[in-house]
Hints:
The chain is α/β, with parallel strands linked by helices. The chain has helices at residues 21-24, 72-85, 98-109, 124-131, 178-183, 193-205, 218-221, 223-230, 238-244, 252-264, 277-285, 299-304, 345-356, 358-368, 382-387, 406-420, 425-439, and strands at 43-44, 47-48, 59-66, 88-95, 117-120, 165-170, 175-177, 209-212, 289-292, 311-313, 328-338, 371-372, 395-397.
Amino acid sequence: MSTPHPIDRRRFLAGAGALGVGAALSGCVGPQNRTRGSGSGEEVGGVSLLPAADGAPAAGAVSFAHWRAEDSGVFDQLIAAFVKENPNATVTQDISPSNDYQSTALQRIRGGTIGTAFTAFRGAQFTTMSQAGIFAGLGAQPFVDDYVAEMLKPGQDDTRAQLGLPYQLVFNMPIYNEDAFERAGISQAPTDWNGFLAACEALRGAGLTPIAWPGGEAGNAGQLLNSMAMNAMPDDTAFAGIEAGRLKVTDDWFLGILRQYQQLTPFFQPNSTGTSSEPLQQMFASGQAGMLATGSFHIGAVRKLGARFPIDLIAPITVPADQARYVGIHNATFILGVNTAGSAQDASLKWIQFLSQPQHAAVYANGTAQHVTVKDVQYTDRDLAHTAPWIEKRTLLAPRFQFDNLDVRNAVEGACVAVVGGTPVEQAAQQAQTVVDQKRGG
């Protein structure tokens, strides 16, 4: 197991800007879990495969549906390059806020007019969309080999058919201000729970809000739970076990997590259960908060808000150091897909193929400060290079996305919010378990 790194900007890797994700993940690469098809209409596991993309220029109107408004400018650059290569094609972005996208995307894109090419969140949304049959099978595409094989799994259905391509490699764990930690006298990432609480106390003593936590925004409030649970869960599939009825929110291990949320409550900003992520990004960017408890996907946003200090990643280790199985959280998400409906499948497929080429994936990665799952991408963005060592650390695939039922996930994550808001631990757990029991299998 890798140990947490010292918090020292001098550790910045010489030459890290040239680090490619394929090389960094070479130790994690598993077998290619896909089946090649040879032509239109072939089915694998009940999924109709699109024929392999040919070399002809794309033609047609692509509607690209996604939720990353902050990436729209970079996508505009990529669209311009795609249209230059394919003059008879157009690509229009159709962007919804992330919460809206999770709740309405399926209804909006299933007709094939919007979202001829689209994205899905890992977990519940991908499962729902795949069951609805709107993903065209991509297992016949040679460009699937441009991805790190292990990272493709979240885009496979339960038959291991490759329906979508997870494009982003993100770290769903707090980001932190290295300068603030240094001023507070924190020289090393805490390796246990007492050390983490001590770090929070030191930040508070330095006049900072230790943790900016968006408890009022369901989409991001639960990101912290990934880290809080990673070493406390009885097994790595415990959240799926809650949904299946094998485990309960009222079990001792989850009650322990809720009690640790109680301990963190004094270190959150005032009215933490009523705050969304946007004002907290500003708080963090202005140096008022030591940590922002969302994920690496907000580094680009806080840079745009004026953050000039070095930023890295940190996760609370909630157990004694010698019991920690993981030091952080990663996720493979922003799953690219081609709609089975509509008349622009060929152009949409070639747009996905274009995004999958390493030189274009590098434009996306470096322009948005997002690591990607495409191999051989060169990271020139300073933040990506600075956080790239996390690719090789012992991190857990974000467990909150094990929930396929969003009502169940919201109930479990809501218990954490309720405890921070003052609800007794056992009461919050029982209320959540009641919802789980009602929704399980529904």
